[in-house]
Amino acid sequence: MIKTGEGSIAWNSFSECSDLKKVVWIENGIQTVIGSTSEEVVVDKGKDLLYRKQRLIFLNPNKPNRTVNVTLHLPTFEPLACTDHGQRNVYLDYHSNEVEVAFEEEGIENTNKHVLEDGVFDLFSIELILRLLPLENGYKNEIKAFNHMVNDTVIVRIEVLGLEKIFDGAREVDAWCVSVYIGESLQTYWVSKDLKELLKQSVKIGDGVFFEFVR
Question: What average pLDDT does the structure give for the chain?
Answer without folding.
Answer: 96
